[in-house]
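Q&A FORM
Asked by: J.P.
Topic: structure of GNAT family N-acetyltransferase

PROVIDED:
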Amino acid sequence: MKIRTADLSDFPRIFELIKEFSDFQKTPEKVKITLEEMVENASFIQALALENDSGEIVGFASYFPSYHSWTGKAIYVDDLYIQPDYRQGGWGKSMLQLIIEKAKSDNCSKVRWLVSSWNMPAINFYKALGAQLEEVDIVCDLNLD
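REPLIED BY: S.T.
REPLY: Here is the structure written out as tokens.
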């Protein structure tokens, strides 16, 4: 297994995994992007790819720089998904650790992400990493389409 920076040639596979992740989340209708849009917006996409021993991408983590008025610079992890057969091997932790190291080298104050309230394995995983889970905020999306 290997973690590396994703590039444009990885987008078709990552797009498949995005759709697979939305199925896992039980929200496939929320995937509005297309592969063509991903390619068109490639300069905005920062991601890690997790490859198995055959070179197939079996997981990804997408993230971007953000700024929070109360705490300053941060990195926001948009998605982290690993196919079920490759979980429990420490790869999610390794991908997050690489993002955390990037945040530290960029002098960020934190790394932030969301987790579904029903996803107890992920919640327990994040707590074990030392993440503080806040139950105060509600996600607000204003779709512009």
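FOLLOW-UP: The chain is about 30% helix and 25% strand.
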